[in-house]
């Protein structure tokens, strides 16, 4: 340390104090040191300290202290880096979990948008199998999908516009049998002439979201993106999927 | 490599800048740099008061720890003088075994003389104060204070010369001059005030 100990132009440098004790100063310089320490508390104390320690020891111990402080800071800094890094990893992990489980995950989107298709079978009342269809729909409307599926199965493929097949597909998805629901609904969704074509694609899309297959879901949604019943909801889902990515 | 670059950059900052950076980011590297600049001063102050090298080394590290928290809350104008007071009072408190009761806030406000000021410089300026007045007030001081002051300022003797001529230790010479000058200043201030009235 060659600068002024007290960082004041009038104060003595550590070298001046050291050299005074080593008798290395000229008479004039010695006089300046002696005059200064009369009025300066700090320099006076530093001057006095040399009564208890040698110049060599001061240099040695100051170096020792400096390296101790360095290692203390580096240790704390590296420790802090480890803590911060760990914290950052935990936060990122928590965020990813949160994102996957709140709002934008496929499963969440499915839960948000999936609603069993309303009963529109009244228009079928003049059909031959309307009695069974009505019975199945009564169970479906009460959320008794298993029982409803058994009834629908009896008339599947026989009713006009594939009502039983469509509601069976929706019931299967509602029951958690997603793959089976998709498979059944594809019979309708792959034919644009089908009565429930847009609805079947909508439910297949939702089922793919649940299976965490957003590309397949979007493919189905794209087929019906201009349908006024689904247009807004599809835009919302697209936005949420993009935000997730 | 990055750390070396940062350290180089930090070494160019002023004490005030280091203090501000530490206060805003709480990064210890700034206090480290600041403290290292005055580690020799801190150590010597501890040696002076504790009169034990090992105890002084421990004290310096303790003071460093104190700084880490105190710097965040204290308004510091001159870090060196503040640190000096902190170190000195830490040692005095330690000597009195009252370290736990140490109130850094209070001690940091203690006034110190860490440089010569105009008043002390002019103390023996005969153009400002009549020589006769100084002489009269000098005679009011204790004998050794008076002798040491006269020899040091009027006869320009060194500590060692005074020590030899008066047969007192060098340390005592310095002490007599310091105390004598302080007391003389008080006497002269009283004299000036009464004279003005």
How many helices of chain B? The count is 12
SSE sequence of chain A, one letter per element: HHHHHHHHHHHH
CATH class label of the largest domain in chain B: Mainly Alpha
Give Rg of chain B in angstroms: 22 Å
> In the residues of chain B, how many domains can be counted?
2
Largest sheet entry of chain A = none
Task: Summarize the largest interface: chains and residue counts.
Answer: A-B, 46 and 48 residues
Report the sheet-strand fraction of chain A: under 5%
The number of strands of chain A is 0
Percent of residues in β-strands of chain B: under 5%
Shape descriptor of chain B reads elongated
Number of helices of chain A: 12
Structural class of chain A: mainly alpha
Order of helices and strands of chain B: HHHHHHHHHHHH
User: How is the CATH topology of the largest domain in chain A named?
Assistant: Serine Threonine Protein Phosphatase 5, Tetratricopeptide repeat
- Main beta sheet of chain B: none
- CATH topological fold name of the largest domain in chain B: Rna Polymerase Sigma Factor, Chain: A
Helix content of chain B: over 70%
Named CATH architecture of the largest domain in chain A: Alpha Horseshoe
Low-confidence segments of chain A, ≥5 residues, pLDDT <50?
Answer: 1-9
Mean pLDDT of chain A: 84
């Amino acid at each position: 340390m060659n600068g002024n100990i007290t960082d004041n132009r009038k104060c003595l440098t550590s070298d001046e104090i050291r050299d005074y004790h080593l008798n290395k100063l000229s008479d004039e310089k010695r006089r300046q040191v002696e005059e200064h320490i009369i009025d300066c508390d700090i320099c006076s104390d530093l001057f006095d300290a040399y009564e208890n320690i040698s110049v060599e020891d001061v240099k040695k111990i100051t170096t020792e202290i400096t390296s101790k402080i360095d290692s203390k800071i580096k240790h704390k800094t590296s420790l802090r880096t480890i803590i911060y890094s760990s914290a950052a990893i935990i936060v990122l992990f928590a965020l990813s979990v949160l994102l996957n489980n709140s709002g934008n995950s496929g499963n969440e989107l499915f839960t948000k948008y999936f609603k069993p298709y309303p009963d529109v079978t009244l228009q079928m009342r003049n059909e031959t199998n309307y009695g069974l269809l009505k019975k199945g729909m009564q169970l479906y409307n009460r959320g008794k999908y298993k029982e409803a599926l058994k009834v629908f199965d009896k008339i599947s493929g026989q009713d006009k516009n594939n009502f039983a097949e469509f509601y069976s597909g929706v019931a299967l998805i509602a029951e958690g049998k997603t793959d089976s629901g998709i498979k059944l609904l594809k019979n309708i969704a792959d034919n644009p002439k089908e009565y429930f074509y847009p609805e079947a694609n909508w439910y297949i899309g939702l089922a793919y979201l649940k299976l965490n297959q957003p590309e397949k879901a979007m493919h189905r949604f794209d087929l019906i993106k201009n349908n006024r019943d689904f247009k807004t909801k599809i835009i919302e889902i697209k936005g949420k999927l993009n935000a997730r990515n | 490599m990055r750390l070396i670059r940062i350290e180089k950059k930090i070494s160019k900052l002023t004490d005030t800048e280091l203090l501000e950076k530490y206060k805003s980011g709480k990064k210890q590297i700034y206090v480290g740099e600041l403290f290292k600049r005055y580690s020799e001063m801190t150590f010597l102050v501890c040696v002076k008061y504790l009169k034990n090298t090992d105890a002084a080394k421990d004290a310096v590290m303790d003071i460093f720890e104190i700084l880490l928290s105190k710097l965040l809350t204290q308004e510091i104008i001159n870090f060196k003088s503040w640190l000096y007071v902190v170190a000195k009072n830490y040692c005095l408190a330690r000597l009195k075994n009252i370290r736990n009761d140490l109130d850094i806030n209070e001690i940091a406000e203690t006034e110190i003389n860490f440089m010569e000021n105009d008043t002390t410089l002019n103390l023996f300026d005969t153009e400002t104060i009549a020589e006769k007045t100084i002489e009269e007030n000098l005679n009011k001081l204790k004998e050794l204070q008076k002798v040491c002051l006269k020899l040091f300022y009027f006869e320009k003797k060194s500590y060692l010369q005074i020590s030899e001529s008066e047969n007192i230790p060098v340390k005592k010479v310095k002490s007599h001059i310091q105390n004598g000058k302080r007391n003389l200043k008080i006497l002269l201030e009283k004299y000036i005030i009464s004279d003005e009235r």
